[in-house]
Amino acid sequence: MSSREDETLAQAAVTALTGQLALAPKPGLPDPRDLGVPAGRRDHCSLRWSAKALAPGLAAMAAAARRTGEPTPQLRAELGSIGRSTEHAVGLAGGGHRGALWALGFLVAAAALDPRAGARDVAAAAKKIAAFNDKGAPRRPSRGSSISAKYGAAGARGEARAGFPHVRRALDALAAARSAGATEAQARLDALLTVMSTLQDTELLYTAGPLGLRHVQAGARGVLEAGGAATEAGARALVALDADLHARAWSPRGSAGLLAGALFLDSLPLSAQARARAA
């Protein structure tokens, strides 16, 4: 049984995911401008519905962590089992968010272990949980793990086991952009671009190969070097990158999921208190 605290964490994670979906323009990713676009191309509405379908599974993950009380192989196995059931439920609700579920599941469980922990402590606890193997995982490799093995990319599993370095980079980018006077949407776009600029996104490697991945990374760096989303030059570069990636049908979904993880950690009470003290 999940408690009110577990459900609050789950809802915070869903809010982070829908907050990421609300940003525009997001290079190569669905955004609110896609409402009404024919299904099968960029279905923003179905992604919003399927994001809400994550809530029960995320609450169950938080409850499992709270009940266990510490990172253990048993907790890792339970999170894997809940995650697979949640993937099925999300598939029935329209699909999507598999990468985000991986990141948010570990982070929600880690946050439940210590409600007083700040963002970076939660990421460190998630690293400890992810260090254990999921003995109940299917033996057949997933597409992501196959691509990771082929190209030597960390992938979702490697990101978690490293303590979510790109989530932490996104948090730093959020703080820097806010301090520089960017709007919240502009700060979040800069955080997304920061992740895109270095992440070895397995979805991009699958669809675009290593050359395509480097093209996307260079494009994201170009927007940031032009000043980011808060500047006129950066905004123009962002629009151009978005048009380019949509024309190529290249979607950096891994970066979007990690931005959602960063927004979740940013929403935790201690993170909010730190922002208030810095204001």
Number of strands: 0
Mean pLDDT across all amino acids: 88
Shape: globular
- Specify Rg, calculated over alpha carbons: 18 Å
Biggest sheet statistics = none
- How far apart the termini lie comes to 39 Å
Uncertain regions: pLDDT < 50 for 5+ in a row? 36-42
Percent strand equals: under 5%
Specify the helix fraction band: over 70%
Secondary structure category: mainly alpha
* Total helical segments: 14
Structure description:
The chain is mainly α and 279 residues long. It has helices spanning 4-21, 44-52, 55-68, 73-92, 98-113, 119-130, 143-151, 155-161, 165-179, 184-198, 202-225, 232-248, 253-267, 269-278. The protein is built from 14 helices and no strands. Helix 1 crosses helix 3 (55-68), helix 1 (4-21) packs antiparallel against helix 5 (98-113) and helix 10 (184-198) crosses helix 11 (202-225).
Characteristics:
14 helices; mainly alpha; globular; 279 residues; 0% strand
What does this entry show, briefly?
By secondary structure, the chain is an all-alpha fold. Helix content is 72%, strand content 0%.
Draw up the topology in text.
Blueprint: H1 4-21, H2 44-52, H3 55-68, H4 73-92, H5 98-113, H6 119-130, H7 143-151, H8 155-161, H9 165-179, H10 184-198, H11 202-225, H12 232-248, H13 253-267, H14 269-278
Helix pairs in contact: 1-2, 1-3, 1-5, 1-13, 3-4, 3-5, 4-5, 5-6, 5-13, 7-11, 9-10, 9-13, 10-11, 10-13, 11-12
